[in-house]
């Protein structure tokens, strides 16, 4: 009986409808007019879209269990390992750093815009280093390992990535004056959009979303981010606003003539949980063991993925440059390539 109760609560929690059920039980529908009530209505959106995405794939006979299996296993594992770690990390950063904020903000529309720009900057910083520092890539690579794109990918993360990300993002925002209530609103909105942009072609074929593709980061842009095509490597680090990708030169539109290849550049078994979850950490350990001297061993931790003490680097920047040099005459993409 306890097992089924736990399973029921886990399913309700995943679907994000526990608060709505409570509202229906109490009959206090006025709460829907509050901020918490609005969040309660929006929370089930991504799980609903995921189920719709799966349903459409089944209906059109495009459903493959392997496309969803590994993200599901990772989600279940993370529920057991890290349910409260990220929340604690956010609370700790607020408690320690809020008194050092440059200035204070309030729940005004102009502070919301300011806060969102700062949040997007903090997200860019966390995400950029997640690709450019080998140790952080070991945490982030689990999210990039799936070789298809669908909404289940949003749940595929190494359990330590969320605390690392939230420490970086919360610290920057608090120090820049984004007060906690405003920060939580922004985190909710950005988290919802950040999940949605993983939507697969089974639900939205063209992820450009029309005119929005020129204004914000769309599913199309995030599909580019998850690609291992040399041109697309290490691009589109932002979540909703593309301002910082444009500022730092990491913005990249999806090219209609270029088929996206999802996944990571190393050989990985996408159906092996241990390889997907711990494979990059194991690879880092092997490189450190065989590297001569303490300096080289430490450099493997902080240098980009693909860096080698031998000088035979295979970083995203090196791979991209080589690809551009090989293809510049035929596709004329040199000016569009990011210098990582």
Automatic annotation (TrEMBL):
Keywords: Lipid metabolism, Membrane, Oxidoreductase, Transmembrane, Transmembrane helix. One of its GO terms (molecular function) is iron ion binding. It is a multi-pass membrane protein. One of its GO terms (cellular component) is endomembrane system. This is Sterol desaturase/sphingolipid hydroxylase (Fatty acid hydroxylase superfamily). Signal peptide: none annotated. It comes from the Bacteria. The chain crosses the membrane at residues 38-59, 80-97, 109-129. Residues 113-250 form the Fatty acid hydroxylase domain. InterPro entries: Fatty_acid_hydroxylase (IPR006694), Sterol_desaturase/TMEM195 (IPR051689). PANTHER family: ALKYLGLYCEROL MONOOXYGENASE, STEROL DESATURASE-RELATED PROTEIN. It is found in: Endomembrane system. Its main location: membrane. GO terms for biological process: lipid biosynthetic process; membrane lipid metabolic process. Pfam families: FA_hydroxylase.
């Amino acid at each position: 009986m306890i097992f089924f109760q736990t399973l029921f609560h886990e399913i309700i929690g995943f679907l994000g409808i526990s608060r709505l059920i409570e509202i229906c039980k109490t009959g206090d529908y006025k709460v829907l007019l509050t901020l918490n009530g609005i969040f309660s209505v929006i929370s089930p959106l991504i799980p609903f879209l995921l189920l719709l995405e799966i349903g459409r794939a089944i209906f059109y006979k495009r459903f493959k269990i392997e496309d969803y299996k590994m993200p599901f296993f990772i989600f279940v594992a993370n529920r057991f390992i890290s349910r409260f770690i990220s929340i604690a990390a956010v609370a700790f950063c607020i408690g320690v750093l809020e008194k050092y904020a440059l200035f204070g903000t309030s729940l005004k529309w102009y502070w919301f815009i300011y806060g969102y720009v700062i949040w997007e900057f903090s997200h860019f910083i966390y995400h950029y280093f997640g690709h450019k520092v080998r140790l952080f890539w070991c945490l982030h690579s689990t999210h990039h390992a799936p070789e298809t794109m669908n909404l289940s990918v949003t749940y595929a993360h190494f359990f330590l990535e969320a605390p690392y990300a939230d420490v970086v993002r919360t610290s920057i925002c608090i120090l820049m004056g984004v007060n906690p209530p405003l920060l939580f609103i922004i985190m909710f909105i950005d988290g919802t959009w950040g999940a949605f942009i993983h939507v697969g072609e089974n639900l939205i074929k063209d992820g450009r979303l029309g005119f929005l593709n020129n204004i914000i980061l769309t599913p199309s842009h995030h599909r580019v981010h998850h690609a291992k095509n040399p041109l697309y490597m290490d691009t589109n680090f932002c979540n909703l606003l593309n301002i910082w990708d444009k500022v730092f030169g990491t913005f990249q539109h999806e090219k209609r003539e270029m088929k996206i290849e999802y996944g990571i550049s190393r050989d990985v078994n996408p159906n092996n949980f241990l390889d997907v979850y711990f494979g990059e950490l194991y690879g880092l350990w092997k490189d450190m063991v065989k590297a001569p001297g303490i300096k080289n061993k430490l450099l493997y931790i902080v240098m980009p993925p693909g860096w080698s003490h031998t000088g035979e680097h295979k970083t995203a920047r090196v791979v991209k440059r080589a690809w551009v040099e090989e293809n510049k005459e035929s596709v004329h993409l040199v000016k569009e390539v990011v210098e990582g």
